[in-house]
Amino acid sequence: MGMSVTISVATEQDAEQIFVLQYLCFQSEAALYGNYRIAPLVQTLDSVKEELASDCVYVARLGDEVVGSVRGHITEDGAASIGRLCVHPRLQGHGIGARLLRAAESALSEERGAKRFRLHTGHRSEGNLRLYRRVGYETVGTAEGTDGVPMIVLEKAAGEYAATA
Ligand SMILES: CC(C)(COP(=O)(O)OP(=O)(O)OC[C@H]1O[C@@H](n2cnc3c(N)ncnc32)[C@H](O)[C@@H]1OP(=O)(O)O)[C@@H](O)C(=O)NCCC(=O)NCCS
Questions:
Q1: How much is the pLDDT for 146?
Q2: N or C, which end of the chain is more exposed by having fewer CB within 10 Å?
Q3: Is residue 28 within 6 Å of ligand 1 at its C-beta?
C-alpha cells in the first residue's frame, strides 16, 4: 500500500527541497526548447527563499519528501500570477499538478482577493497547455520569457472551476 500525496502550504524549511525539485522537473522543458537557461533553472536558492516568504506557495508531500510545488502572487493589475508548477517526474500523470493548481487558486482568491488567475507556459509545451485549458484557462496573449523562449499567456476568472479529469 503506497502513502498518499497531501497538498499543504509550504514552510520556510521546504526551500531547499523546492529548489532541487524545480531544477529536476524543469529539465524536460529545457530539453524541449534546447535552452538550459530558462528561468526555473537559473533561479537561485535565495530567490526561492524570498518567494517562499512573500508568495502563496503550496507543496505536495509524500511522507517527508516534497514531490510537487506551485506558487503565486498578486500582480499590479490585481490578477494573481501563478507559476513554477512542478511535480516529480515519477509521480506525474496522477492529478497532483491539477490539485496543486486548485490549492493555489483557492488561496489566492480567498486570502489575497484575486479576481483573475494568470499563468504562462512555453508555446511548445502541449501537456501544460492541455492541463491549463482543462481547468478553465484560455489564451489571452503571448510573451517572451527572460530566456527568449516564446510563451503563451493564459487566464481564467476566479470562481470558474471547470471539471477536471
Ligand atoms: C506540468 C506538471 C506540473 C503537471 O503535473 P501532473 O501531476 O503530471 O499533472 P496532472 O496529473 O494533473 O495532469 C497531467 C496528465 O495526467 C492526467 N491524469 C490526471 N489524473 C490522472 C489519473 N488519476 N489517472 C490517469 N491520468 C491522470 C491528466 O488528464 C493529464 O493528462 P494529459 O497530459 O493528457 O492532459 C508536470 O508535468 C511537470 O512538473 N512538468 C515539468 C515542469 C513544467 O513544465 N511545469 C509547468 C510550467 S508552465
A1: 80
A2: N
A3: yes
pLDDT tens figures, 29-65: 999 999 999 999 999 999 999 999 999 999 999 999 9
Residue nearest to atom 48 of ligand 1 (CA): 121
CB distance 25 to ligand 1 below 6 Å: yes
Atom of ligand 1 nearest to the CA of 96: 7
| Contact 131 CB / ligand 1 (< 6 Å) | yes
User: Is the CB of 81 inside a 6 Å radius of any atom of ligand 1?
Assistant: no
Q: What is the C-alpha to C-alpha distance for residues 5 and 68, in angstroms, rounded to an integer?
A: 9
Mean pLDDT of 67-74: 98
Domains observed in the chain: 6-157 (3.40.630.30)
Rg for the chain (alpha carbons), in Å? Answer: 15
Q: What is the distance in A from the centroid of ligand 1 to the CA of 114?
A: 24
The response to whether residue 89 sits with its C-beta less than 6 Å from ligand 1 reads: no
Candidates 103, 105, 97; CA nearest to 159 is: 105
User: Helix, strand, coil: what percent of the chain each, to 5?
Assistant: 40, 30, 30
